[in-house]
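ok trying this again, last paste got cut off
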Amino acid sequence: MVSAYLKKYPSSSADLGRYGEHLPAYIAEFKPAQDLPYLSDVAQLELLWHKAFNAAEDVFSKDGLRSLVELQDISEQEHARMEFCLASSVHLFNSSYPVHRIWRVNQDEFQERYSGEGSVDLSEGGAKLLIWRGADFSMRVDVLSDDEYQFVAAFLEGKSFEDIVDMPFNQPVSDILQRCIQTGLVIGFKLV
């Protein structure tokens, strides 16, 4: 599979870290892998993990990004112009399979800690995932609720916080925002 992929998609960059973006789609079409329908999604998760790991570091002086501590200095009139900013390493992934579990049981550190739990039941269903790197450079693959996924997706689509507040959620937006701030996912804000 890899040999055929390398022939079809030769590297176009000296940076090997940029290679592999077509692999998930390639695996989905690769006939010998048809009995493993989740395999392309696992490859997509791995690709997003790699992208998150190598994402640029967040810089507060760049593009008007301000620290959350500065929220106390914002006037009520400026609230409508506020745009919260996520860590630059954030990627969302919605899979029909429990790919986070498949991926995790195949990691060396998981196998050492959880011997005997090396199988995954595909009937567990899909997962909405957030793949990102924390401020301490620890890598995270978090399972999100529907509301959390919709909330983060709205930020990634460039929607303003004012527009996000008007979206239909099953829980208060303030609770979702607070969790995102507490985990370090929301790192700051801008006035637009």
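PB: full thing came through this time. The chain is about 35% helix and 15% strand.
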